[in-house]
Specification:
The protein has 20 helices and no strands. It has helices at 2-11, 14-32, 44-57, 77-88, 100-119, 122-134, 136-139, 148-161, 172-187, 192-205, 212-234, 247-254, 257-261, 271-280, 286-303, 308-319, 325-332, 339-362, 369-391, 400-422.
Length: 426
């Protein structure tokens, strides 16, 4: 029976096998959606859903509690993407979660495409697809209306375009890369820097065939696509707002007494810090509030700079789940995740990240020339993710870039092991 299944699977085309893996990954995500926790009014998810409905109702980008007060707490992409379905289903809220597994499908196919273009191996691509389909760090957010699934999908496809940029004579890759950089910026603003760095490294690698004009065109297209949102915000707030007003509360929660001195929360953020920052800056204008919180957070951080080594080390420990993962799991309940799913995410990281380091080490001298650019992008993304956690806070959501490239590296390594086993050297 097993041999017949293996034989039937082997006889299928690559596309058919990829579609099957992706369909199973989506099916699991759809099964998982009903297990998510009820919607919380203070959650990011509630903001995205509310703004989608308000786009339809004619009160776009306004405060959850007052449509006369402007809001840019997050980027607009998620709400714009689900707005057509909010229009079709005017009362839908948690039901909109069933759309997000389809975004997860885009990530699965994109990851497989990147690996296939790098390795020229169907088997490596299918391994990557399987890993993306089952890895909890990806599917745990694919059941919520949040920005991470959209950012992951865009970033994966941005990576997938890099190997062929040098041979693209019709500027198709250049245009698509500009669009994807804009999508990333409008989904998760902190990843804009990573997207630009990826483009810069790729341009340097392909500089013999890709002109500076094409590299700058990527940035220009992204800037043009982001400009309507940026320009729109300039007329709504007292202080400049570009992509979101979320920086202030992020910094305020991570740069306070509890986050610097309390052993329970050192290196993390805390609701007490958020509440204190909100009381210190009660303005209804998000830009004023965020600006004040940012200023206070920076003042606190510089005044307690002697604690930075300890705080940054603690942030990395939180980031990798090495310190109080039970607290992260508890806090994830407020974001909508089930306890068992958050623990699956933690265990998945414990397995993936050491395997990723081992895979990088094992492939350090065996990587084919086509993999060298990918290796640089993998290392760049991993270092950026770690630096991001050290600079801000060790939230697991900041792992998304690291999750993606770790899965790529492990897939390439597993495929290489199969090749070596089939063709051992003398």
């Amino acid at each position: 029976m097993r041999q017949r299944l293996v034989s039937a699977w082997s006889s299928w085309s690559y596309r058919r096998r990829l579609v099957t893996i992706t369909a199973l990954g989506v099916l699991w995500r759809l099964v998982y959606v009903p297990f998510e926790r009820p919607l919380r009014i203070w959650s990011d998810e509630h903001w995205y859903m509310t703004q989608a409905h308000r786009l339809v109702e004619g009160h776009p980008w306004s405060s959850i509690f007052n449509t006369d007060i402007p809001s840019a707490s997050h980027g607009p992409l998620v709400s714009v993407a689900i707005a057509p379905f909010a229009w079709l289903f005017p009362t839908a809220m948690t039901g909109l979660r069933f759309l997000i597994p389809l975004v997860g499908a885009v990530s699965i196919v994109g990851l497989a495409t990147f690996v296939r273009r790098v390795s020229a191996s169907d088997r490596a691509a299918l391994i990557a697809a399987v890993l993306a389909a089952v890895y909890p760090g990806l599917w745990v957010r694919d059941g919520l209306v949040v920005s991470e699934p959209f950012a992951i999908a865009a970033f994966v496809w941005l990576l997938a375009l890099q190997p062929g940029w040098g041979s693209d004579r019709r500027w198709r890759h250049t245009v698509l890369m500009g669009v994807l950089v804009a999508v990333i910026a409008l989904a998760r603003a902190e990843l804009l820097a990573l997207a630009v760095l990826v483009v810069m490294v790729s341009w340097w690698w392909h500089r013999a065939t890709v002109s500076k004009v094409r590299g700058l065109t990527v940035v220009l297209i992204a800037a043009v696509l982001c400009s309507p949102w940026v320009i729109y915000n300039q007329g709504r707030f007292a202080k400049p707002v570009y992509l979101s007003t979320n920086l202030g509360i992020t910094l305020a929660g991570a740069n306070c007494h509890l986050a610097y001195y309390d052993g329970r929360f050192i290196g993390y953020d805390d609701m007490g810090c958020w509440s204190a920052a909100a009381k210190a800056h009660p303005s209804l204008d998000e830009s004023v509030r965020s600006s004040g919180m940012t200023r206070d957070a920076w003042a606190y951080a510089t005044a307690h700079a002697h604690r930075w080594p300890i705080v940054v080390a603690a942030r990395e420990a939180w980031f990798f789940g090495l310190y109080r993962p039970n607290w992260v799991v508890y806090m994830s309940k407020g974001a909508g995740q089930r306890v068992w799913a958050s623990w699956a995410q933690a265990v998945g990281g414990y397995i993936l990240f050491p395997t990723f380091l081992w895979a990088l080490w094992q492939r350090r001298k065996k990587a084919a020339s086509s993999e060298r650019l990918a290796r640089r992008l993998i290392i760049l993304t991993a270092l950026f993710s770690v630096a991001l956690a050290g600079a801000f806070v060790g939230h697991w959501r900041y792992r998304l870039g690291l999750d993606v490239v770790a899965l790529v590296a492990v897939a390439l390594w597993l495929d290489g092991r199969r090749v070596e086993a089939a063709h051992p050297t003398a």
